[in-house]
Amino acid sequence: MKTRKIAPGRLMPLLAPRVRNSHKGDYGHVLVVAGSRGMTGAAVLAARAALKAGAGLVTMACPATERQLVALALPEAMTFSAASSNGCFSLKAAGQVAGLARDKKADIVLIGPGLSTWGETPAFVIKLLSALQLPAVVDADALNAVAIAGRYPQTGLPGIITPHPGEARRLLAAAVSDRPASVAALARMCAGAAVLKGAGTLVSDGVSVLENTTGGPALAKGGSGDVLAG
What we know:
Layout: E1 4-6, H1 8-11, E2 29-33, H2 40-52, E3 57-63, H3 67-73, E4 78-82, E5 84-85, E6 88-89, H4 93-103, E7 108-111, H5 121-131, E8 136-138, H6 140-149, E9 159-161, H7 165-172, H8 179-190, E10 193-196, E11 201-204, E12 209-212, H9 224-229
Parallel strand pairs: 1-12, 2-3, 2-7, 3-4, 7-8, 8-9, 9-10
Antiparallel strand pairs: 5-6, 10-11, 11-12
């Protein structure tokens, strides 16, 4: 499968100048579902990135026992305490978070950074994805939950998945030797878009494949994927 390189100059026109008399409600509401005991930093990094990228509002939903940590780290974001067990999301939290997305009128949900795969967390992820009525960015341990379940919930809404090569291998249950073909297959899996990270990150809608030629080995560190997802 052929790839086309993404020229930075093609992206800038997509970032329209902001109207002078606009307000925070004009720039979208991102719901970040992330974090667990020992990995609350992932939630903070993702939420901060969403704000830096221009989101007007960001709400972080995290396990109830960890809420205070993320609230102190990012005071400009709103927070929500979800049902938890041993510092991780419990299955009961799926209904709570789906209701939060509806009540807060979120425009998109990011789920995955720092979730862990402990206990009921994988089941929580699948139940939440099935219940959401809006697009979702699925990253990190939420992708591992999909791999454990053996299926991506088909909701009729577009998804964006952001796997690194290891997560892609688990999702496809196959080696990722042909990166362009793999990223296209991943995009078709979620009926949306896939971002296959690595040296020369690939982006696909299931038909065409684009290559991001920017970045470098300095990004090979914990947290960079959380920022990308945000």
